[in-house]
Amino acid sequence: MSSPPGGKASPSLPVGAAAMAADPPPSPTGARSFPEPGAHRSGGLSRVRLSAVGRIPGQRGARAVRAVPSLARRLWPLRRPAVSSAVVALALAGSGVLILHLVQRQTGTAGLLVGLGLALLPLPFVLGSLAWLNQTARVPIRHTLFCLAWGACAATTVAILANGWASDFLIAHRGARGETWGSEFATPLIEEVAKGSALLMLLLPLRRQHGEPARPPGRLRRLRRRLRRRRGASERPAALFRPAPAGRQRARSRPRTLAAGAVLGGVTASGFAFTENALYLGRAFTADRQARLDAIGLGRTPSLRDFDGTVHTFVLRALLSPFAHPLFTALAGIGLAVTLTTGRRWAARLGAPAGLLLAMGLHGVWNAAAGLGTDGFLLVYGLVMVPCFAALVCFAVWAQTRRTRQPTGPG
User: Fold this and answer.
1) CA distance 151 to 269
2) Which positions ≥6 away from 118 have C-beta within 8 Å?
3) Do 224 and 57 meet the contact criterion of CB atoms below 8 Å apart?
4) What per-residue string of b and e applies to 5-27 under the rule 16 or more CB within 10 Å gives b?
5) Per-residue CA distances from 181 to 102, 261, 316, 338, 359 (Å)
6) What distance lies between CA 227 and its chain's CA centroid?
């Protein structure tokens, strides 16, 4: 109110009238009120969020209504690390029991035991190579154990069920051509997505914690910008998967980050290959044993050559290609690491899709080589798989060399 003429101050208002005058009048258009940045400075950003988002003029209980979902999220049991770890362990154990049952149905008990024993032989060699690369990546042991269990239990369960459904669908609609499409296109897509899900679950939370946060509503976003200008940008702790700085600086992913993506992908694929090898070796052993029993029933003399199918499968999968699945998923892991950490926009957009497409393409070529006969398989093996594996080895040596040359930083 303006002062009356003559320079005299206006008479003092009663207490109730002063309280009514202190409150701003409601907006005639029904627009939401938005307090000034310093209105709730003592309460911090959380109090501003409760009063700034979704507050209707004249509705004083909006703050309490907004506090209920936030309290529910804080009290949600899965937000506790111990409870979430127990839930994940139970889920992986359940999928492990299910995959054992599915494999046992196709191989029998004896074939399952023989397949598990033979599939275990190349696993220490593959994991030892990845452990050497992990000297650069420094991935925590809990993450590697999770990836190994995910690949051996959850990913194989999804793959064996989805591959069966996709194969039946394609064969029913396309006949013999559908079977080829299933092994060369559907199977690589299903298996690489199933294995890559573990990488997403491990890397995306780190991105949200140390990278760009989720975009809040428009008014709250502008309010946060004002608060940051007044308080100054707070320093975030160094992290393994932090985004590289943009601008004139060199916005490249660090060797440690790329090596971590390769290690996580390789460990996940090692577990997947272990269960898959157990399935194929168990099938081959069961078929060879049945042929041997039939030969004995016909009066033929048994010999070790009766198990040529098992030996051939073991040489092909355990000796010639123990790094096939780790190679595929390592490419997807490197691409995802580039997307989550680089400061270059084009690399961030193309990294993960390019890595996944390369993984699925190599996987499809590898499956197609099995139907080309011995000569065709060896040709694909020498011209495609060996150079790709050599490139992955060169990358591992480069990352290890960079680690030894550069001093260890906080990240």
Assistant:
1) 6
2) 277, 278, 281, 310, 314, 318
3) no
4) eeeeeeeeeeeeeeeeeeeeeee
5) 24, 30, 22, 31, 17
6) 34
Question: Which amino acid appears at position 279 of this protein?
Answer: L
CB 181 within 8 A of CB 174: yes
Other beta carbons less than 10 A from residue 304's beta carbon = 8
How far apart are alpha carbons 88 and 202 in whole angstroms? Answer: 13
Give pLDDT tens digits for 79-96.
Answer: 667 777 888 899 999 999
117-134 per-position pLDDT tens digit: 999 999 999 999 999 999
2 HSE (CA, 13 A, CB side): 3
* DSSP secondary structure of 106-139: HHHHHHHHHHHHHHTSSHHHHHHHHHHHHHHH--
Q: What is the DSSP string of 16-69?
A: HHHHHHHSPPPPTT-PPP---TTTTGGGHHHHHHHHHSSPPTT-TTHHHHHHHH
**With contact defined as beta carbons under 8 Å apart, do 26 and 60 qualify?**
no
pLDDT tens digits, 280-324: 999 999 999 998 888 887 777 777 778 889 999 999 999 999 999
Phi, psi of 298, deg, nearest 5: -85, 0
- What's 200's DSSP letter? H
CB burial readout 151-173, b (16+ within 10 A) else e: bbbbbbbbbbebbeebbeebbee
Hey, what are 11's tokens? 């008479």
Instruction: Tell me the two tokens of residue 188.
Output: 């690589």
Angle 132-133-134 from CA coordinates, rounded to 5°: 90
**Which two structure tokens, joined as six digits, stand for 298?**
């016909």
Query: Using CA atoms, how far apart are residues 361 and 196, in angstroms rounded to an integer?
Result: 15
Integer Cα distance of 336 and 260 in angstroms: 10
